[in-house]
Structures are given as structure tokens and as C-alpha cells.
Amino acid sequence: MSVLEIKELVAGYDERVLIRNLSFLVPAPAFIAIIGHNGSGKSTFLKTLTGHVPFKGQILLQGQPYVSRAGTIARALSYLPQKNNVAFPIQVRELVVMGLFRQKRLLDHYTPADYDRVEATLAHLHISHLSQRSFTYLSGGEQQLVWLAQLMLQDAPIALLDEPTQQLDVYHKKKVFDLMAGWVRENQKTVLCITHDLLNLLPLEGYVLNISQPQPQLEKISPEVILAHQQFLEEKLAPAIGV
Ligand SMILES: Nc1ncnc2c1ncn2[C@@H]1O[C@H](COP(=O)(O)OP(=O)(O)OP(=O)(O)O)[C@@H](O)[C@H]1O
């Protein structure tokens, strides 16, 4: 059974098709970097996978057709959007513990054991010192690391991340790419990660999918492949064609 299969996917908005006839197969847990120019449709593709953008074609998650069972989809996917705002004051540990929501019933309380898992995850990300801080006062990069902690607790087999390293310094960018590589290698997760940080991909095992190309397909990461995509992306994006 494949982890993820996309067959002749067409997706976009009323006036614009952004993803046209995309097909690929991820047979086993893997890291997939989704790259492309600004506005090429990378976020649109992830939002298609989360059910927020209408599509034609087929999406199979762990062998199940996308439209078959909503519960299956929710359990299979975790998603970290590009912009994730919190409009109320909340402590970091309270925000991170919400990552366990799938494992809880509606009125269940979080237990001391749940908070132990939160602390262990924060420690794994080297941000234990943020645990008691108020989330809204953290820096953009610190907030991004907190969202990653919450995503890790969700523990879904397929993680979708929209530019998780966008606001991070070079040290933390590298750490987060190492972390995602670890999820694949040690926890058999599949990670689809939108990024503009092509150089960070060089040491990784996995694939790139360049949404700016006319026929995007999975290509194994190697220095040559990354360099070719870097050069491709340094050119202007061809204008998208309307429906
Ligand atoms: N809900 C929407 N309705 C109509 N058009 C939209 C909608 N959301 C996004 N778009 C447009 O679709 C295009 C692709 O947007 P998308 O966010 O998928 O690009 P992206 O590749 O993720 O870009 P970036 O690298 O800048 O994050 C953009 O031109 C955007 O304005």
C-alpha cells in the first residue's frame, strides 16, 4: 500500500487552475520538498490535500480514496499552515498540548502524562525554556518552533508543512530540516514540506517536487538536481494560464 498517490490532479480557484495534471506516487515513508516560485501554487497543493481547495483527479492517502472517510483523512494528516495566528493569550505548553486532540474524546482533560509528553517534545526541540511563556509574546521564529512541537505531538503518518523554516535563523533552519529527516528515518513518517531554502536540502535524503515546472514530478535529491532547480527558479515564473 502506498503512503500517498496523486493521480491526474487538477486544482485551483474559480478563475485560475494552478495544479494541472499532477501525478506522483510515494510508495514508502519519505521526505518531499515542495519548491517553486512565489504564487506558483505550492500552498494551494497542500490545501488541496487538506480538503480546502476543490480538485479533480484522485488523491489516495494510505491506499484510501480521499473522499471516502473524513475520519481516516484527519488521522492520516497533520498540517502546519504558513500563517497561523492565535488571537488570545495562551501559555506555550497549553498550545502544544492541543496537538494531542486527535487522541482525546470531546470532554477529556489533558493529564499530567500528556504534559510530560509536551515537555519531552519541547526538550527535543531545545525550547523547554519557552514552556511557561505566553505564546503571543514570542518572536516569529520561536512561535514557529512551538507550532512544530504541536505538530510533532499530533503524530500523524503524513505531515504537511508550509514553509516551517521561513522565520528561522540559519542554525534553526538546519535543525528543523534535520528534525524532519529524523521523522522519516526513525518514525517512518512522510513529510511534505514547502520551502524556498534549497541549499538546506543538499544533505537530505528524499525528493523535490517543483510546482513551477510544467509537468512537476518527484526527483531524488542530489547536488546536481538541487542546482538545476535553483537555476530554473532564478528565472521568472511563466504566467499561469486561466481556465
Ligand atoms: N482563496 C483563493 N482564491 C483565489 N486565488 C487564490 C486563493 N488563495 C491563493 N490564491 C492565489 O493562487 C496563487 C497561488 O497561491 P499559493 O499560495 O498556492 O502560492 P505559493 O506557491 O504557495 O506561493 P508563496 O511561495 O508565495 O507562498 C496566488 O496567485 C494566490 O493569489
Automatic annotation (TrEMBL):
Q: Which UniProt keywords apply?
A: ATP-binding, Nucleotide-binding, Transport
For whether the record's keyword set contains Metal-binding, the answer is no
UniProt keyword annotation of Nucleotide-binding present: yes
Instruction: Enumerate the transmembrane spans.
Output: none
GO molecular function annotations of the record = ATP binding; ATP hydrolysis activity
Stretches assigned to the ABC transporter domain? 4-238
**What InterPro entries does the record tag this protein with?**
AAA+_ATPase, ABC_transporter-like_ATP-bd, ABC_transporter-like_CS, Metal_Ion_Import_ABC, P-loop_NTPase
An example Pfam family from this entry, by short name, is: ABC_tran
Q: What is this protein called?
A: ABC transporter ATP-binding protein
Q: Please name the source species.
A: Rufibacter glacialis
